[in-house]
Design brief:
The complex is a heterodimer of chains A (113) and B (111). By secondary structure, chain A is mainly beta. Chain A has no helices and twelve strands. The chains are: A mainly beta (113), B mainly beta (111).
């Protein structure tokens, strides 16, 4: 079946540091890939997505590239801010799963001033 | 993108109470979901509805009773809950492979 593996953290960075959160996946066919973010006390928000190989999703300074050869979708940001402190979830949807969203376990990011 | 509205945002209920959570979407999505998010646990998918029909129930106790009267509305009826049912309950909707849209959640506390 489909699965997503992401670094569990927690990750603690200083403001303006570079961020990478690794995500790899196993899926049938050609899945769509997503990063969701959950700020404290809130629901999940879609941060970015990519629907085919070599696509790059980007939003709010975050980027992730769909790498089919390494089955990866790593999240990066060049300079994090305190306001980026949140839990980040990598996820996928594949047609073989009746379009069910499969999540990683989430990575808690804390950015200190 | 909000698109999915959940009410109430916070709910405190006693173990003998009956209450309902409401979820509404006007995105034209055909599928709706209930998730449970407990502290330090992965997200748990509870129920799935496609075109108003329940297509998945992940061994959820009968004290949780979902209802989907149309493709835009989803309810979760609660009765005789336990303290361990305290959690954030998230509703989501989706259309095929284009991703899910989540509501802000209902923070439920059972006392």
């Amino acid at each position: 079946g489909d699965s997503v593996t992401q670094m569990e953290g927690p990750v603690t960075l200083s403001e303006e540091a570079f961020l990478t959160i690794n995500c790899t996946y196993t899926a049938t066919g050609y899945p769509s890939l997503f990063w969701y973010v959950q700020y404290p006390g809130e629901g999940l928000q879609l941060l970015l997505k990519a629907t085919k190989a070599d696509d790059k999703g980007s939003n709010k300074g975050f980027e992730a590239t769909y790498r089919k050869e390494t089955t990866s979708f790593h999240l990066e940001k060049g300079s994090v801010q305190v306001s980026d402190s949140a839990v980040y979830f990598c996820a996928l949807i594949s047609g073989g799963s009746n379009y069910k969203l499969t999540f990683g376990k989430g990575t808690l990011l804390t950015v200190n001033p | 993108e909000t698109g999915v509205t959940q009410t109430p945002r916070h709910l405190v209920m006693g173990m003998t109470n009956k209450k309902s959570l409401k979820c509404e979407q006007h995105l034209g999505h055909n599928a709706m979901y209930w998730y449970k998010q407990s502290a330090k646990k992965p997200l748990e998918l509870m129920f799935v509805y496609n075109f108003k029909e329940q297509t998945e129930n992940n061994s959820v106790p009968s004290r949780f009773s979902p209802e989907c009267p149309n493709s835009s509305h989803l309810f979760l009826h609660l009765h005789t809950l336990q303290p361990e049912d305290s959690a954030l309950y998230l509703c989501a909707s989706s259309q095929d492979r284009y991703g899910y849209t989540f509501g802000s959640g209902t923070r439920l506390t059972v006392v």
